[in-house]
Amino acid sequence: MDKLFSFFISFFIHIYAFTATVPFLWFFLLWIGGYVWHRDGKRATKLAMDVTTLLLIGSVSMIFKQLFGTNFGFFFILLLFLVGYGLLGNFQYRLKGQINHKRIIRLLWRVAFLTLSAVYVLLLIIGLIKSIVSV
């Protein structure tokens, strides 16, 4: 039973590692699949953004680890999520007098997609320059 469990864990780790190496490929595949399924471009874009954000978190933190040799990338992303949630929650409470957690999380997740996409491209460029210079 222990070998079966470790096989499934290893299998899912490898699947996630494969999908996280090319997150934008999965964005386009999910967008096409969502558009074909729902016939709604806006809904397909939201679905593709939501799934790709999860992949970008892993990708950006691993690229950060490869470039700078530290595991701080994941924890920095987590810290930014927590600070962003606090700021948005405070803003929403001051504006409306109550907090809508679902709306804050959705906004934070979509902003994270845009931010992590830019950071992903920036870290890829830094990695390419670093590998060219070190040769």
Brief account:
The chain has 135 residues and is mainly α. It has helices at residues 2-21, 23-38, 41-68, 72-96, 101-134.
Quick tags:
single chain; 135 residues; mainly alpha; 5 helices
SSE blueprint and pairings:
Elements (H helix, E strand, L loop, with lengths): L1 H20 L1 H16 L2 H28 L3 H25 L4 H34 L1
Helix pairs in contact: 1-3, 2-3, 3-4, 3-5, 4-5
Write up what this structure looks like.
91% of the residues lie in helices and 0% in strands. The mean pLDDT is 89. Helix 3 (41-68) crosses helix 5 (101-134). The protein has one domain. The chain starts with a helix and ends with a helix. It has helices spanning 2-21, 23-38, 41-68, 72-96, 101-134. It is globular. It has 135 residues and is mostly helical.
Helix/strand/pairing class, anyone?
mainly alpha
Give the end-to-end Cα distance, rounded to a whole number of Å: 47 Å
Low-confidence stretches: none
Structural domain tally: 1
Strand content: under 5%
**How would you name the oligomeric state of the polypeptide chains in this document?**
single chain
Instruction: Give a short account of the largest sheet.
Output: none
**Average pLDDT level:** 89
User: Can you write the helix and strand succession as a string?
Assistant: HHHHH
Number of helical segments with 4 or more residues: 5
Helix content: over 70%
**Rg (CA only):** 18 Å
Shape: globular
* Number of extended strands: 0
